[in-house]
């Protein structure tokens, strides 16, 4: 049975994150220390230095040859379940929507694995749990965020085609459509088909270019590459290199949470999408995602602490990257913004509840 000392360990791991969050929020909202431009500069510092090095530090110490592939399979199955449900809803329901399916996928599957997950899971299940969370984070960055980018880019490219032909007389549509085809065959060269829908390899080029501009993406890739090489040939990172990375990466969690506080303070209101959509987002984040993960975990035969870690890490707060992408592509950014902010606020009691229930069932 769960003891109060266990709950205290979890609270002790989470409270420092909230302290950094509140300090960031108060420095703008209450004390007016930073201007919006200075907040942007701090966010850039976190985005390009501390968080990528923080990500690299954890990823580089993963042993790819000892990864829990059942755990990774369970994670993949859970996401496939959600994709199939959303695809069925979009196609068969009168309220179904392709755009809302994309947002719902983000809300129910993409988590803040490293910044919140690592200290939380370490307090709950020790280093074994941390290793699983890091593995999940690496797969999310390399596979699922890439898939999300591809779908968002495809949607935007397709929307350009539709906008060019709607709300115009038929004769103008025919003429404009022909002109748009010619023009786009020139914005894309030989990479598009004559129907103006962008070719697969053109979209992939855009997606990989955007990933290359995202420091956290290549931090995962470079870190995983190093992990493969170092574990294959059994050599360690030189101490001078390790020290250079650690001096910045140790600030990763604190500065990321401080930056989140700045972001919260710059919003006009915490709940910017209305109560109904906020509840919708929280249900997907804290109920649908863990439920799908439980199905996937049971399907592949996970049990014990690995099963519990799988479910709890699926209930972590919303990924900040998913909001950044939503804002860039103009797709329900206010919903993702609320999910990130409100999710951080309610995650502590929710995650402790999950921990207590799973330990009690054990």
Automatic annotation (TrEMBL):
Residue stretches spanning the membrane: 7-28, 69-90, 102-121, 133-152, 207-229, 244-265, 277-300, 338-357
InterPro entries named in the record: Auxin_eff_plant (IPR014024), Auxin_Efflux_Carrier (IPR051107), Mem_transp_PIN-like (IPR004776)
Keyword Transmembrane helix: yes
UniProt keyword Transmembrane helix present: yes
Top-level taxon of the source organism: Eukaryota
Keywords, sorted A to Z: Auxin signaling pathway, Membrane, Transmembrane, Transmembrane helix, Transport
Cell compartments where the protein resides: Membrane
GO-annotated cellular components: endoplasmic reticulum; plasma membrane
Membrane topology of this protein: Multi-pass membrane protein
Main location: membrane
One GO molecular-function entry: auxin efflux transmembrane transporter activity
GO biological process, one term: auxin-activated signaling pathway
Family named by the database record: Belongs to the auxin efflux carrier (TC 2.A.69.1) family.
Function: May act as a component of the auxin efflux carrier.
Name of the protein in question: Auxin efflux carrier component
